[in-house]
Structure formats: C-alpha cells, structure tokens
Amino acid sequence: MYRIIFTFITISLFVGSIFFKFKLMMNELPHDRFIKRALKISSLNLSTEIYDRNNHLIGEFSTNKRYFKPITKIPKHVIDAFIASEDQNFTQHMGINLQAVLRALFTNIQHGEIVQGASTITQQLAKTMFLSHKKSFGRKIKEIALAIKIERILSKEKIMELYLNFIYFGNRSYGLEAAARGYFNKSAENLNIGEAALLAGLPKAPSYLAPHKHYERAKSRQIYVLKRMLEQEKINRQQYQEWIQRKIEIKNEDFYNPASKYFVDMAILELNKKFPLSYFFRKGLMIYTNIDMPYQNQIHTFLKNKFSKMNRTFTKQKHLEVSYMCINTTTGEIVSLQGGSDYEKTQFNRLTKTRRSIGNMIVPITISYALEQGYQLPSILQRNPHNNRDFSYLFSFFLETESNNLAEFIHQLGHHNIYEFAEKLGFLSQSDVKHATSPFTSTLWNLSVGFLPLLNNGFKIDPYLIREIRTTAGEKLYQHQSQKRPQVIMEENSFVMQFALSDLYKSFIKENSKNGPVLELGIPAVSTNLKNGWFLGVSQGFLHSLWIGAEYGKRKIASNRRAALKQIVAIAETIASFGKIHDLKTKRKKAKFRNISFKRYQLKPFGTRTLPYIIF
C-alpha cells in the first residue's frame, strides 16, 4: 500500500516538474517561421534524378539515397501499414498520444532509465529533423513540444508526407521511395501490401531488421504489422493469411537500366560545366535529358551481344571495343550514345577518351578545307608537271586507297592550316592543334562535332544532353537555349560535301551489299594498320557516329581494308535501321542554290561521276 502511495506521489511530482520544464522549453524552441522553413521538402538532402526525353527516370547521383515522393502518389495501403506499425491514433491526436506517454513514463520511472518510448509519427519526425538520437528526459520533452508545434503548423497529410520521405530504412536508403527501389527494385507507388508491411516495420531498427541481410527478422516484424492492419480493419483475414505465408522477394540490385549508364555519366559531366556538382548532391533536382530510351535500349542490346560474340574466342588483350553517338543534325540534341560495349565490364568512355588515328577520315576534312580555299570537286590536280596526262580530280581522294597523293596535297595546302581548320569546325581541340603531329588522331566525339557543320549549311552546332533542370516543386532552374551559331564554311560548300558523301556512300553500298542503302549519306574509314574503324553517316536528319577498335592494339578489325570497311558499314546500317523502327526523324532544311551546276566527269580509273561545281 505504502509503495503504491509512494509511486503515485513520485509520478505526480515528476509530472509536475515535466509540465514546468515543458513550459520553459516551449519558449526556447525555434520560432514557427524557422520550423516551417526547415520542414519544407527543399530542406531534405534529396538525390538528384535524371530523366529521358519522355520523362522516365534513368539515373541519379547523391551521397545518400533519398527521393521525394508526394503523398498523392503513395497508395493508401502503404500509409495504412505505417500508421498500423508506428501510430494507430495518428489521425486523432495533436502530436502526442497522452495515454501512451503516461504508460511509458510509469515504466521508465520504475526502471530508473528510458526503456520504453511512446513516439507518435509526428514525434519521430521532430526527433529526426531537429534533435539528436541521445535518449534523455530533456530531449523527450523537447520532442513532445516540437511535435505539438509541428501539428499546429502542418496538416496531417503533410506530416505523413515528410515522415515517409525522411525516415531511415537501412541500406543507405532514406525515405520510402529509396527503400522501395533499394529492396524491391520498384517505385513506392507500386508496392503491394506485403512489401508495404515489411517496409513499415523497418524504422524501429533499420539495421537490425534490414531484409537483404536479416530476412527472418524482417519477416517476423512484417507479420506483426500485418496483424495490426488486420486488427484495425485495413486488410481482411484472407489478405492477412496470404501475406504472412508469402515470401517477399528482395531485389537488392541496381534500380536503373544499364543501357543508360554511359549517357548518365556524360550528363553529369555536362552538368558540372554549368553548376558545381556539390549543389546537386543535396538539392534533389530533376534533370531532363534528350536520350530516347526505347532506341537506346535496342542499341545497347545489339552492341553488347554483337561484341560479346565477336570477342568470344579472343583473350581480353585482343578484344574489340566500340563507341557510338546519335545527334540531331538540326538541334544538336544527343539522343543516344554508348561509351563501350558493356558498362558492367568497363565504365571507360571511349566516345570522349579514346583518341586514335582517323585514317582516311582526314579526306572530308581536307576536301572541305580545299573547297573553302576555292577548289571544287572537279578541280584538276596535276601530279606530274612533266606529264599533262598525269592528273586527277579533287573528288578522287574519296575513292583512292593509297595515301601518297593525299599526303602530298595536304603538304601543298599546309599541314598546320588543315589542323586549324579542323579545330574551327570541331574535329580537333585547341590542344590538338598546338601539338599537331601526323598522322591525324581524334576521338569519336570530336569527329562527330566537326562533321555537323557539313550537314547544317555550314553552321557550327554544339551537341548537348541536358534540356531542362527543375526543382522537386517544379520550378525551372535551367533550360537549354540555342546560342548564335557561327558559320564556319560556306553554305554552298556544305551542300557540295553532302552531295559527295551521298555519292560515296551509295556507290560503296552498290559495290558491297545486296541490299539498298539505309542511310542518306556517309563515309567509312579505317586506319592504315586496320586497328581502328570509323563511320559517320546521316539518316532521317540524325548523325550516326561509330568507332570500332582493338582495345589494346593487338587485333585488327578484319584481315584487309575492304573487309574492315564492310563490317563497319554493316554495323552502322543496323544501328541506323533501329532509328527508323523507333521513328527517329527530324526535318532538315535542304538549301537550294542557283549558283550550283552539275556535270559528268570521267574519273579514271573510277568510272564516270556527276559532280557539282559552284558558279562564281
């Protein structure tokens, strides 16, 4: 009897002191304005997400995994699971469950320390966002006071939204969306009842219950949550029986499509040129890009399978590799790219980093420069000053396999002049010009950039991957704006080059393929040692750029030049045909010139050709 009276007096005194402390702490708490600001979604350290041109998620970057998911996109049974697990009176109380607090208080006084909590969802949110995790009566009182303030400031719906986006689920997953992706490889809006109940049980002890490491513990906790949902009539008996018996499949694997990974890496690099990356690691922004994922998926699958088959009987030292890019020739949008045949095996991006001899890809650069200097495709080049019959036409350089005549012509034009012209178009960087050596070397990226003015009436285009950046609230931070494009070659010369490359490509297909041409124009090239192959071609307004090469320089693409060219063109045509399947096309302006005429010429030993020439 005396013990009961003593306990009652002790509790009364303790409760009185708590209310006194509570009143003092309410005055010490942050102002409502500060709490409102801190409780905004923008205050969360969210992951920045990257989307394709159809607004489908393809990648992210962050220090910890956290993605904002609005409450309107979270299914009701998911919210029911968390309420059943953590706070069954969530919709009724004003921040604290007084009955549960008194029960916990009595237990803790009996033990002389904090052994039982009574935190509502609002209290958990207050603790997570404003307080340390150290257990003490003082911190608990602050937690209660903050919870009451939060309930005054925010609606129940907003509190639940913040809670589900903030709590920790283990496995570096912060928030419901990160947990759904991390454990089930799906979005939170697609969680079923069993998965929802399993996740709802994790916040109590996320590391101890993490299902990818301790499935039985997580399953036991899930059954507890399901039982609470049944008791609260959120599920029926049949659903309860079904989910306690069913094994939940844990898919602790990459959420993102491997086909997009080279593109995502390059998008992050482009982003870093515009903003400091540290900003994006915290702000949880949405990056919208130009990638066409249905097309990219087909390219990725084809190249991965093709090169896996080609390398099957060779050691790693003799593997062939590949890089590829597809650019809208009018806008500069990059809709597809591959930095290698398989990102899972190597993340090295050969598109921008592999610099190799460009072989006869120097021909369109040289002829473009010559056209700018007043030459024309039918211009006669005298090879032997003592023999009037020993001559050729400028166009013949496209058809010749021997490089001696070309080398002599390059020397005549000026080696450094051609380098500077190539840099002006984008084929080479300023660094390449400064350290100019022969043979010409370049990356597929630079070759593609330099090729664009030839396809766009002589105007230079800067390819880009990112079209728009928004906050989670939808505020637009950045939108790609087309800059004024410098004209780097005459429009007439751009037309002449397109005509020449169309003639060249169609003649190659006629001689080497039973099928008709897939592209409108193009040029294949191989290095002298047959260890590097290139292709640049246009189909439906898109530039398809391809490089194939021996990764370690110990294997040829094919046994001879013709076989190598045929192989490169065959791969390029297959890729371009995928573009037609996915309706990858854009309108290109076709310029008409009254000062361009055509005439047939006998190009010994290459037969008769109709060539354009400019009338000045």
Overview of the structural elements:
The chain is of the alpha+beta class. The chain is built from 23 helices and 16 strands. It has a five-stranded mixed sheet with strand order 2-1-3-10-11. Strands 5-4-14-13-12 form a five-stranded antiparallel sheet, sandwiched between helices. A two-stranded antiparallel sheet has the order 6-9. The relative contact order is 0.09.
Record field, number of beta strands: 16
- Arrangement of strands in the largest sheet: 2-1-3-10-11
- Helicity level, as a percent range? 40-55%
Terminal residue distance: 118 Å
Described by the principal axes of the CA atoms, the overall outline is elongated
Could you write a compact summary of the structure shown?
The chain is α+β, with helices and mostly antiparallel strands and about 625 residues long.
